[in-house]
């Protein structure tokens, strides 16, 4: 532990200038956040002309019924326009809030409110919760029209929306309620660690983050998700038999097999698994079951079990721990830095003794460029995992020595095509746009790879 702390203090000494130099952090954050937004807009502009193509890629031509390709192009076009406008709108809002000292205002307003209830400025944790609450609520309100437009105009126009206004409001209130009920104790624990451990907070905070993530793995499916959707045991029948047999052969610790009423909100479809290492749950969208044949859904699950087989969720969690560790290791230099708070319009007495939560949020904004790079790398890793899981499905016949699985690649390909066509997903994708935004390879890339995996397998055998 001491070795860790000596290394961490070395980093802090490198960054010691943050605590003394009057750097124009506001200008820095403004420039980088605008740079990211403009780059994302540029990507949309690169992608946009592809929505005017009249024909799908040759390999997909036969799968689009009359008019379906045109529909998917017009859906993509509308989504791109919306993304462009909403991206710039959100950036303008953020930029205004940043420029006119919204963060400092939220902190002092929180303080004034609490003073009315008899809580003085020495109650840092309570004031921090009030601060985050004000910040979160006031910045969520101006983006509400975007959400309403996206659900009731955009998705509605293309036939996906199943959300009623009542459900929309209920979801929103539930979401905010949960954010508060889960967020406030988490924030209190987070800040207590700083008060208690001082500058030696890194290992303790890591422990808190890992415990919180594990807690969410348990709480989310059992308490939170049922507030939004109904999970019911998958009914008896061919699909259930197939999936249970597949899980059994792979020794996948299947505890529950659910069908989820995804169709309550939208007709987009999917399947996933979650849970602790010894008790996993599989969830299949009712829309996927309606749209695909049992043997195709089985192939989608074979792909999902590939993720499990290669420990992809665990690997992603390890990477995210490393990411959190890096952020925390850099943070102490920003924790006691009056010039940082002064740059964001905090009054001198507050800046002299920076509240931890304020320092942490400002520090997060400074990390914007780093986070953009991290997200590109995460997408690249995730795409690699997708190939691996697809190959797993193709090679399942050898692993399980089961002739009946010889066409698993074909079935997966058919399921992916159905998913894509029914969801009107974009089939023509600009490579740079895809590298930046997509955690999954494009459909054409995946179909080609599935053929490749099959061919490589056949070659190995002959
Ligand atoms: Zn996958």
Automatic annotation (TrEMBL):
Keyword check for Transport: no
Sequence intervals crossing the membrane: 125-154, 175-198, 204-223, 316-337, 357-381
EC numbers, comma separated: 3.4.24.84
Major localization class: endoplasmic reticulum
Occurrences of domain Peptidase M48 (ranges): 233-452
Cited InterPro entries: CAXX_Prtase_1 (IPR027057), Peptidase_M48 (IPR001915), Peptidase_M48_N (IPR032456)
Keywords assigned: Endoplasmic reticulum, Hydrolase, Membrane, Metal-binding, Metalloprotease, Protease, Transmembrane, Transmembrane helix, Zinc
Subcellular compartments: Endoplasmic reticulum membrane
Superkingdom of source: Eukaryota
Cellular component, GO, one term: endoplasmic reticulum membrane
Single GO BP term: CAAX-box protein processing
Cofactor note: Binds 1 zinc ion per subunit.
Pfam families: Peptidase_M48, Peptidase_M48_N
Catalytic residues of the enzyme: 304, 390 (proton donor)
UniProt keyword Membrane present: yes
Gene Ontology molecular functions: metal ion binding; metalloendopeptidase activity
Membrane topology: Multi-pass membrane protein
Role of this protein: Proteolytically removes the C-terminal three residues of farnesylated proteins.
Name recorded for this polypeptide: CAAX prenyl protease
Organism whose genome encodes this protein: Crepidotus variabilis
